[in-house]
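Aim 2 progress update. The chain analyzed this quarter is reproduced below.
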Amino acid sequence: LHVVYTILSCCSQQDLAQAFTSYVSKAKTSSSIISRHVNVNTHAYTTFLTTNTQLSASPVSSSSSNITNKQAENGDVVTLEIQLTPTNFVPDEPLFDTEGTVQFILGGGGHLPGLHAAVLGKAAGEELTECTLDAGYGSINPDNIIKVPQSNAPEGTKMKVGMELFLQNGMKVRVTEVDDESETPTFTIDANPPLAGSAYSAKIKVVAVDSVENFETATFALGCFWGGELAYMREPGVVGTKVGYTQGEKSAVNPTYQEVCSGSTGHTEAIQVVFDPAVVSYKRLCQLAVDRLSANGSIYLKNQVGNDRGTQYRHGIYYHDEEQRVIAKEILDGVLPRVGDGVECQTELEAATVFYDAEDYHMQYLLKGGQSAKKGVTETIRCYG
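Predicted structure tokens:
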């Protein structure tokens, strides 16, 4: 019953009116209008959590104790002290950290787009003392709010404020006002997402702006890259992640998802992790990979993780230097043979080759779908919704 709200932003008042009138006409001759309670706090805002989204924020005032430092650019790693407070809505449990220290690659997702925008161009020591951030549910589109004559309502149905309706074309609308007193009674319907226009009041201090070159990179293949990426996003010390394709044929340049899935390019789905070794060790990241593969026995399967089969789902640790190779080998050598038949660990250990970014819709896919990326959370990761 959830609605793809982005469709609604393209609808004019005329479209909405026609949809409602068309639906009511059918309802009067067949059945009463569908009305039921639906959890209005669906994560419609995740449509906006993408690295290609235009970022927006409204800083009101700022101060700086040091204006000579490097100004933050997309691709830099920023360390912030933040406090985000909802101003006009009651959110579900946030999918990201809203207070304390956060660290991420600017422009690389993983947090509210508005937070990225707010600190773009800022330097260490600068503060935003009064800043309003779009909570990510989108702005209110006035074209999605219309008055409808009471005569268009299904016969015998009394419209009430708060009623939620599903129109014939699948649109969900809410009744926000009922006017029974005027000469021509009307009711108002609103097709905007329930939390459209929601915002956070933010206090932000830029603690540091660093080049990403000062951090380390790790590459892992754990089957379908959606779940593995979210697991690393939750790990303290990880400042950035992306998914893509690696370890393929040299002649297969910039492969598409479809080409990789065909098995013709030799690539495997992989996760590239940028991390701060002062916070999290490479050994810990390798252990996380082994733990995920061991949880369902996939670590003993060749070219398979869970129910996903094929060379594109082979699992591996791909080291970037000799130190990583030694650490990864130690972790994999510690995996005992499978009880019963003695099958050895099938996770491959190879030097990392060219990593090709996956299509944007794959990036941080499960966060966009409403699963938490807060640091340290342990709730189950659902790879398919």
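Residues 1-12, 23-61, 64-68 have pLDDT under 50 and may be disordered. The helical segments are 13-29, 113-119, 225-233, 257-262, 282-295, 322-333, 365-368. These observations will guide the mutagenesis experiments scheduled for the next reporting period.
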